[in-house]
């Protein structure tokens, strides 16, 4: 995988290059100290992967991605600041590594990249628009709630619950809150996999365990794990259309 390192700190580039020597599939084709240099190298070298710092003189990492024309390389953000994690999610970053970079976290990030590249042709499975991609079961998202962080695959999230201006995610035994409205989240999710059951809930259809008739022509859905969610009468019609042969 042709890889470009973008970081304004020379020592940070040297350290990352050293760490990446352990991964033979990563071919470092160049380095850039700012967004302008990176844009020129991306056009010339056509890298498949960026290790991208966020805070840099001039344009930051997000502005660099917004300035790219055509399909963008896959991106792993490398930064000393955790407050950009939610915005990184909006750019569909493969991962978000905090400096100093932990070797085990880097291994996880590289394995995630390898999942995105089939063996043999060295090309990504699909080119994506980084600002408009619809998120499905196989996508992973960064979730931060207070001091705790997760990088979770959406197939593990069984339920999204509106809590005012926040959304609570239910996965494993975790229930973190993210600053996002349920409506805006619904626009990003694959509607064949994630269903808006009512005003407050989106359910992962893969987690539906039991369906029962409910009051006023609605349905009561029980998810694996025991969560019970009412599907409104209005949404019941669409639910039956979506899940029937």
From TrEMBL:
<dbReference type="InterPro" id="IPR046947">
    <property type="entry name" value="LytR-like"/>
</dbReference>
<dbReference type="InterPro" id="IPR011006">
    <property type="entry name" value="CheY-like_superfamily"/>
</dbReference>
<feature type="domain" description="Response regulatory">
    <location>
        <begin position="2"/>
        <end position="114"/>
    </location>
</feature>
<dbReference type="Pfam" id="PF04397">
    <property type="entry name" value="LytTR"/>
</dbReference>
<feature type="domain" description="HTH LytTR-type">
    <location>
        <begin position="143"/>
        <end position="245"/>
    </location>
</feature>
<dbReference type="Pfam" id="PF00072">
    <property type="entry name" value="Response_reg"/>
</dbReference>
<keyword id="KW-0597">Phosphoprotein</keyword>
<dbReference type="InterPro" id="IPR007492">
    <property type="entry name" value="LytTR_DNA-bd_dom"/>
</dbReference>
<keyword id="KW-0238">DNA-binding</keyword>
<feature type="modified residue" description="4-aspartylphosphate">
    <location>
        <position position="53"/>
    </location>
</feature>
<protein>
    <submittedName>
        <fullName>LytTR family DNA-binding domain-containing protein</fullName>
    </submittedName>
</protein>
<dbReference type="GO" id="GO:0003677">
    <property type="term" value="F:DNA binding"/>
</dbReference>
<dbReference type="InterPro" id="IPR001789">
    <property type="entry name" value="Sig_transdc_resp-reg_receiver"/>
</dbReference>
């Amino acid at each position: 995988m042709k890889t470009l390192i973008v970081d304004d700190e020379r020592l940070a580039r040297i350290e990352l290059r050293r760490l990446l020597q352990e991964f033979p599939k990563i071919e470092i084709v160049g380095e850039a100290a700012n967004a302008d240099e990176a844009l020129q190298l991306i056009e010339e070298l056509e890298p498949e992967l960026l290790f991208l710092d966020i805070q840099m003189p001039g344009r930051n990492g997000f502005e660099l991605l917004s300035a790219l024309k055509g399909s963008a390389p896959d991106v792993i953000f490398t930064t000393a600041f955790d407050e950009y994690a939610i915005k990184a999610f909006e750019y569909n970053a493969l991962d978000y590594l905090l400096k100093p970079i932990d070797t085990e976290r880097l291994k996880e990030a590289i394995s995630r990249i390898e999942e995105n590249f089939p063996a043999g042709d060295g090309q990504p499975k699909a080119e994506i628009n980084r600002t408009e991609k619809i998120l499905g079961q196989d996508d992973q998202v960064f979730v931060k709630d207070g001091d705790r962080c997760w990088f979770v695959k959406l197939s593990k999230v069984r339920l999204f619950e509106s809590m005012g201006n926040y959304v609570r995610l239910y996965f494993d035994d975790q229930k973190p809150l993210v600053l996002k409205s349920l409506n805006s989240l619904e626009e990003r999710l694959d509607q064949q996999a994630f269903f808006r059951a009512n005003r407050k809930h989106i359910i992962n259809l893969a987690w539906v365990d039991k369906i029962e008739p409910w009051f006023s022509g609605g349905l009561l859905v029980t998810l694996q794990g025991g969560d019970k969610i009412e599907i409104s009468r209005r949404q019941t019609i669409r639910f039956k259309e979506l899940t029937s042969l």
